[in-house]
Design a protein that fits this description.
It is built from 4 helices and 8 strands. The protein has about 160 residues and is of the alpha/beta class. The longest helix is centred in the middle third of the chain and has 18 residues, at about 55-70.
Length: about 160
Amino acid sequence: MITVPKVLVIGADGEKLGVIDTDSALAMAEEAGLDLVEVSPNTSPPVCKILDYGKLKYQEQKKASEARKRQKTVDVKEIKMRPNIDTHDYDVKMRSVNKFLGEGDKVKVTMRFRGREMAHQNLGMEVLHKVRGDTNEIAKVEAMPKLEGRQMIMVLAPR
């Protein structure tokens, strides 16, 4: 598939063989029982290497799967609260928030208002500000508290 007339060839053991015409480079690769692979097509002349193409593809595939294995997906965990939450309930919820942030997950804190609680949104805002203050050293606020219907939502991300 190499269309240029001359290429810079690198041997199977990594030594530079110089600029050779493509046909003789293909013959050298055939003689060694390997393939001529275009490594850098955008240079002048293009760089080709004599190597086993199947082995190269296998190594690239292993490297890609290893990279996929190492990456961590960030989940968004949700904690639901009410504006008149008791101190012990608040502490239990905050333990969960700290655990989620410690594991590297984002936390969505949802303040739910029911009935006449909608008239006292400032109480819910105070609780969310308290959450922000308590998690200040381990988390940053990704989305400030905002009202969406009957819920006030704030998103925290680990530092």
